[in-house]
Write a structure and sequence with these properties.
The complex is a heterodimer of chains A (59) and B (258).
Chain A: H1 7-44
Chain B: H1 9-40, H2 51-81, H3 86-116, H4 124-145, H5 149-163, H6 166-176, H7 196-247
Helix pairs in contact in B: 1-7, 2-3, 2-4, 2-5, 2-7, 3-4, 3-5, 3-7, 4-5, 4-6
Classes of the chains: A mainly alpha (59), B mainly alpha (258).
């Protein structure tokens, strides 16, 4: 695929889009793990939900 | 499961757990197909190969406005119906919308340099999108600056609805003012002005990015619900410690929490 004289502009656009999407996915995945870990720690310290379910219960 | 059932955060979490793998799969397939079709698209007779930047730029530009529209509807849900998930939806959407707006600005700028001879021009369309980006950042700062999520939600909802005034300004800026940015070529009266060889990859990429937004939004909403559950449990824990300290005896930590 020959992109001509503007290869750098096109490649930068696609790479930047890929980088931003990967960063978004990573941020959301790390945030999920962090919240789950904090809930688990609270549960282990003896704090329980009003419903009696586990704090990490997703159902 | 009816729509009203989703007002329950726990039911939303269960639904999100079932939906997310499928949403992610559809997103990957659509974006993969979109990238393949974009690679096969011919060069434009005027833009040359830089037309390929449009397959990234246009979906991100559409989504930058669409996400603010979603946040505006969620803000109405917060202020009018006090829906328990409305402000969760609005808060979770803001960083994703900001990312799409950033990409629209960046890719537009990278297209502008070879085509217009400049990275930036204080043109009505570009300036109004820059304002949208700054509003996203302002909204995210507002959410971080107020500790109580309920109070932050109301202030953010008002700011979001005021900011929605910018959406028609962005959309019609190319018609109302004499701008360097070209007028609409897809969503316009009389149908799209693009040839199918450009229109099909563009639409596939736009649908792919839309699914990406839905996937990330559901995942970010799930995180926000968990964050509020953490906050609620921490407050219960603090109250339990206070109670045990004031009574001088041991108090059960098995206190109620959301």
């Amino acid at each position: 695929m020959d992109l001509g004289p503007y290869t750098s502009f096109i490649a930068t656009s696609y790479l930047a889009a890929a980088l931003v999407v990967v960063l978004l996915i990573a941020w959301i995945a790390i945030d999920y793990r962090t919240q789950k870990a904090r809930l688990r720690a609270l549960e282990e310290s003896g704090i329980s939900r009003r419903s009696g379910r586990a704090a990490t219960d997703m159902q | 499961m009816s729509l009203i059932d989703l007002a329950n955060p726990t039911r939303f979490l269960a639904l999100a757990a079932r939906l997310l793998p499928w949403l992610a799969l559809v997103t990957v397939v659509l974006l993969g197909a979109g990238l393949y079709l974009s690679a096969l698209a011919p060069d434009d007779y005027q833009q040359g190969a830089t037309v390929k930047i449009m397959f990234i730029h246009v979906p991100n530009a559409w989504l930058s406005m669409f996400v603010w529209g979603v946040m505006s509807i969620a803000s109405l849900g917060t202020l009018v119906w006090r829906h328990p998930l409305a402000d969760v939806a609005a808060k979770a959407a803001a960083p994703i919308g900001a990312s799409f707006t950033f990409l629209a600005l960046l890719t537009g700028s990278l297209w502008g340099r070879p085509m217009w001879g400049t990275y930036w021009e204080w043109d009505a369309r570009l300036t109004s999108v820059l304002i949208l980006f700054l509003m996203y950042l302002g909204l995210m700062a507002l959410w971080r600056s107020v500790e109580d999520p309920t109070r932050a939600a109301r202030a953010a909802a008002v700011l979001t609805l005021v900011g929605a005034i910018n959406l028609p300004i962005i959309k019609f800026s190319v018609d109302w003012w004499n701008t360097l940015h070209q007028p609409a070529s897809v969503m316009r009266m009389g149908g799209p002005a693009l040839d199918k060889s450009f229109l099909i990859p563009l639409l596939v990429m736009a649908i792919g990015f839309s699914f990406l937004f839905v996937t990330l939004h559901v995942a970010a909403m799930r995180n926000e619900i968990l964050r509020r559950r953490v906050r609620s449990l921490q407050m219960m824990q603090a109250r339990a410690y206070q109670g045990s300290a004031s009574s001088g005896g041991a108090t059960s930590q098995a206190v109620g929490a959301a």
